[in-house]
Amino acid sequence: MRYDLVIFDNDGVLVDSEPLSNGLLAGYLTELGHPTTYEDSLRDYMGAALHRVHDLVLERSGQRLPEDFDATFHARVFAAFREELEPVEGAVEVLKRLVAEQVPYCVASSGSHERIRVGHRKTGLDAWFPDELVHSAEDVGRGKPAPDLFLHAAARMGVAPERCVVVEDSRLGVQAAVAAGMDVYGFTAMTPQDRLTGARRFFSRMDELPALLGL
Description:
Blueprint: E1 5-8, H1 18-31, H2 38-45, H3 50-61, H4 69-84, H5 91-100, E2 105-109, H6 113-123, E3 134-136, H7 148-157, E4 164-168, H8 171-179, E5 183-187, E6 201-203, H9 209-212
Parallel strand pairs: 1-2, 1-4, 2-3, 4-5, 5-6
Helix pairs in contact: 1-2, 1-4, 4-6
């Protein structure tokens, strides 16, 4: 099956940001009195919008995070991105193949538009993703695992959900894509396959993706 639209998650799929951002998140939460390991952060927050962090901390501790939590965390993440962020190995080659085969694509990320843009500028992916191909959880009322973001992206791109495939590396992202009625290909470079239940296919290297897409 040739899909009419390939929707990429961003963090961990296009940019190798998950180790940086989850390490920083775990450290910041621990500073604030909510002990969190890197593994805890990957398990609980990978693929989610920041409101999930607020919700889980409140649920577990009865305490609200500081009002400036988001701004402080973003400042730390953006500083790290500007210094260290790299594209996921093979991602640019996949994008080149999609363009050559005239297969439409876009990105749908739990991150803010600013976070996406900071990462794309550092890695050179901004050349592949003009504004009309970038969709953020900021654009919808609910982030992943709700289907809203993926449905929004498909609608903006003019493609029916059942004609879309989502490339995801997080449990919450897979859940969101399945709820949106889309096929999902699970990227297992960082996430064990058994945590991506619901994905139709799995791959561990980006150079495997074109063949899975029938390109």
